[in-house]
Design goal:
127 residues, globular
């Protein structure tokens, strides 16, 4: 394989996003996705239900509790935040609008997943 680090990066992104979805699954299932279009609402709920079910059926491959468990945890978290900010700023300089948008969406998605994992306890939004 020419670029194994790319596969590793893809896998890391997958397990982080999957863990965030698993953590928010109960909240997502209760969220009202009503748009006024009954057909689209049913399809959206079906997709949310499917991915929530899928996320629970996967083995836990990422444990956010151990990622920043050492003495330098606060510094490492801050470094990760700064890296995401820098990547976002770099994406502002990309001349291709399609590439800039795609890069921003990817960065925002992974950043949001990390924020979910590190900002909330287990079952963060249960009533």
């Amino acid at each position: 394989m020419a670029h194994p680090e790319r596969v590793e990066n893809l896998y890391f992104t997958y397990v982080v996003v999957l863990r965030a979805i698993t953590k928010l699954a109960d909240y997502l299932l209760e969220f009202d996705f009503s748009t006024g279009n009954a057909e689209m609402d049913a399809k959206t709920y079906g997709l949310i239900h499917a991915i929530s079910t899928y996320s629970h059926s996967c083995p836990k491959t990422f444990n956010e509790g151990t990622m920043f468990a050492d003495a330098d945890a606060v510094a490492v978290k801050e470094e990760v935040k700064n890296s995401f900010r820098n990547i976002s700023r770099i994406m502002d300089c990309v001349s291709c609008e399609k590439c800039r948008l795609w890069g921003k969406i990817q960065t925002t998605g992974l950043g949001t997943a990390l924020k979910v994992l590190f900002s909330y306890e287990q079952n963060p939004l249960q009533k």
